[in-house]
Specification:
This protein is α/β, with parallel strands linked by helices and about 300 residues long. The protein has one domain: ATP synthase, F1 complex, gamma subunit (Pyruvate Kinase, Chain: A, domain 1). It has a 5-stranded mixed sheet. It is elongated and about 115 Å long.
Length: about 300
């Protein structure tokens, strides 16, 4: 059994750790509320805008007229890995990195072997984890989450759209955690470009719209304006989702760490009391033994 000094030092250390994790939990809870409000406000607009774009694109006889909807042979692919800048959020970042590696080693193995798959990391932790596993990062942006707003997201979206328009990439895929609630994050893999047609429940392409709309000036011009805007909104929504999911994951992780620290403190206090009682008993026995020796 450890001596009293060692147990006291351990108790002090665990108490200090519990205070830190409890404070981090409260900070993440406050940030989560703001991030959650932002993503829940944005999500209906983004989903409806994407639905309108897919519906309109599917109703056109030639949906490949837009450069962003053009389906090309998959020769070069860009994976956009969205993680956080900070850790202490459980498996939040590790899950995104695992999914990225799974894509590289399964679906994209032939292209990856030819070095035709590039990685763009939005967030420091994803870049660090992938580099530690020997993967080369084409581009990394660690500043986006320091000031997350639509203007900064637009800059990144426009660059990806320009790369796709120039033919640098034939497919751009987003990998991120979607926010569901404080305790649950859903790992998402979405095609950013090219824009794909809306699918029915049976998987067939939707070529007709439900109502007879009058388009002004015309479908083509509306679609040419709608697609870039929708893509910017789609990336911004993914960043907001990841940001909210990060704080949810961190709050949950710190809550669990605080509870574990409390449980450990109970065990340490019990050990401390046992050690103290053993020391007192030993001293009493020594005194009694000494007194008996003097009598004899």
């Amino acid at each position: 059994m450890a001596n009293l000094k060692e147990v006291r030092n351990r108790i002090a250390s665990v108490k200090s750790t519990r205070q830190i994790t409890s404070a981090m939990k409260m900070v993440s809870a406050a940030k989560l509320r703001r991030a959650q409000n932002a993503v829940l406000t944005m999500r209906p607009y983004a989903l409806k805008l994407q639905e309108i774009m897919q519906n309109l694109s599917g109703s056109m006889e030639d949906s490949n007229e837009s450069v962003f909807a053009k389906q090309r042979e998959q020769r070069r692919v860009l994976l956009v890995v969205i993680t956080s800048n900070r850790g202490l959020c459980g498996a939040f970042n590790a899950n995104v990195v695992k999914e990225t590696i799974r894509l590289l080693e399964n679906e994209l193995t032939p292209l990856n072997a030819q070095k035709n798959v590039d990685l763009m990391c939005l967030g420091k932790k994803g870049a660090d984890l992938l580099k530690s596993k020997g993967y080369k990062i084409k581009e990394s942006n660690q500043e986006i989450f320091n000031d997350l707003n639509f203007e900064n997201a637009t800059v990144i979206a426009e660059k990806m759209m320009d790369d796709f328009k120039k033919g640098s990439y034939d497919n751009i895929i987003l990998i991120y955690n979607q926010f569901k609630n404080a305790a649950v994050q859903i790992l998402k893999t979405e095609d950013f470009l090219p824009v794909k047609e809306q699918k029915s429940e049976k998987g067939a392409s939707v070529r007709t719209i439900q109502a007879d709309y009058i388009f002004e000036p015309n479908k083509e011009e509306i679609l040419s304006e709608l697609i870039p805007k929708t893509l910017k909104i789609q990336l911004y929504k993914a960043l907001l989702d990841s940001f909210a999911a990060e704080h949810g994951a961190r709050m949950t992780a710190m809550h669990q760490a605080t509870e574990n620290a409390s449980d450990l403190l109970k065990e340490l206090n019990l050990s401390y009391n046992k050690a103290r009682q053993a020391a007192i008993t030993t001293e009493i026995l020594e005194i009694v033994s000494g007194a008996e020796a003097l009598k004899g």
